[in-house]
Amino acid sequence: MNPLYTVAEIRLIEHTAAQRLPAGALMQRAGQAGANAALDLLPFSTSRARVLVLAGPGNNGGDALETAAHLAYAGAQVSILHFDGAASAMPAATSPEREHALQRARTSAAVFEELGLEAIASIEWNLVVDGLFGIGLKRPLEGHLRALVAAVNGLSCSRLALDVPSGLDADTGAIVGPNGVALRATHTVTFIGDKPGLHTCEGRDHAGLVQVSRLDLDASLFQPSRQHLNDVKFFVRHARARRHNTHKGSYGNVAVLGGAHGMAGAPILAARAALLTGAGRVYACFADHAPAYDSAHPELMCRQAGDFDFDSAVVVAGPGLGTARAAHGLLARAIASASPAVLDADALNLLAADPALQNALAERAGATLLTPHPLEAARLLGISVSEVQADRPSAARQLAARMQAVVVLKGSGTVLAEPQGQTVINTTGNPALATAGTGDVLAGLCGSLLAQGWPVWEAALAAVWLHGMAADVLVTEGAGPIGLSAGELIPAIRTALNRMVQHHGR
């Protein structure tokens, strides 16, 4: 089920395993796993492959030295840049296991070199193996190491990170330290268990394709995790094929509350998304003057928000709602309703500015789902955007607990959290979603699944997964990532949802 483990949890597993295994076994296994991953990235004729191995001062460097020895034995031309504590300016206590790995590398055909940055840039490497710093890094890369990472990032070859790209926080996906740098790997082989930081914030840009090597550890060492990668298995039981003997009332009502002056497009996008993903009836409720109908989808029913009974539908509040006093009153009515509610965009901004609304939200009986981007989350938590991005999983959990709601913290590696602390990181999606209106589409999709009877947690998981998958498919077909519009996502989401039902539905 794709569990994710914090650094503290990995350390505990590692410590317990080391007591059961021969000395150095974990490092040797990590080195073999690193070499296996490296060999998959090298040309068939290994003897002509040139590999640069970066070995840092700690145990991650020991893993790299073991990897280098294995690659040399396999016939690759291996050059090692070795950094002990003094050379790295980041002292580390040298373990006996690392000393043994160093000796194995020295007795192999690998060559220890002192290459300048210009020399590194001038050689046509097939692969760079990053073993500078692993999960224990606490301060930013500086000086020569910072310059080295920048030089390696500029190479055109594959770059394999061992455990975690150097400079990346394994728990959060943020780059370590203010103005820090991290190695941009094309591939990462991570040891013992997967880490959340490889999949959110800067992680997806720096970790590349991630594979997990559990180092043949016994399953009994792994405790149940509260963090996972999103997976169809978490929600697919709710993707049911439709019975013939049904009608529009069988699939629920959605009311999109928004549409202040000059912002009518946002609720229309959300309403279209709800309509095309299966809601039985969809109302677009406008804070300002309601249009007679939507010319592209006259099936949508346009209403004045002030006249609408929010107890009669799942409410998607916020797209283009504005923050005027009238909008505040409409949002208060929506929160006071017994219906499930999705709060997005301006609904979140109004909520952030009014503690009374927040208290009402936390106490409501209906299911509640919030879909903030980082700025909206920062306003709700009373912190800066940089603080949210410094630890996205923590920010999502705090917000879910405070608001007693399921939270979808949007961004690269969208983080979903529920009030009891369970966290999921989504794996679908790409930069095509970085355009206006895609959040409105997601909110409408969430409302549609809730109207069709999905539980709020599974509705959020499915909506985020489908939203990202639609973007991935469109990019594969050439319609992005540059220039993809939010409206184009909607029919692609419909296709993805129907295929999911066809393949997995009951």
Overall, the morphology is: elongated
How much helical structure, as a percent, in the residues? 40-55%
The CATH superfamily label of the largest domain reads Ribokinase
The strand line-up of the biggest sheet is 1-9-18-17-16-15-14-13-10-11-12
Number of strands: 18
Q: Biggest sheet, open or closed, and with what strands and sense?
A: 11 strands, mixed
Our measurement of the CA-to-CA distance between the termini, rounded to an integer number of angstroms, reads 21 Å
Task: Write down the overall mean pLDDT.
Answer: 96
CATH architecture of the largest domain: 3-Layer(aba) Sandwich
CATH overall fold name of the largest domain? UDP-N-acetylmuramoyl-L-alanine:D-glutamate ligase
Beta-strand content estimate: 5-15%
**Helical segment tally?**
18
Count structural domains.
2
Q: What's the CATH class of the largest domain, please? A: Alpha Beta
Taking all Cα atoms into account, the compactness measure Rg is: 26 Å
Characterise this structure.
Helix 16 packs parallel to helix 18. The protein is α/β, with parallel strands linked by helices and 506 residues long. Helix content is 40%, strand content 15%. The chain has two domains: 3-225, YjeF N-terminal domain (Rossmann fold, 3-Layer(aba) Sandwich), CATH 3.40.50.10260; 232-504, UDP-N-acetylmuramoyl-L-alanine:D-glutamate ligase (3-Layer(aba) Sandwich), CATH 3.40.1190.20. The model has no long low-confidence stretch (mean pLDDT 96). It contains 18 helices and 18 strands. It has an eleven-stranded mixed β-sheet with strand order 1-9-18-17-16-15-14-13-10-11-12, with helices on both faces. The two termini are 21 Å apart. The radius of gyration is 26 Å and the shape is elongated.
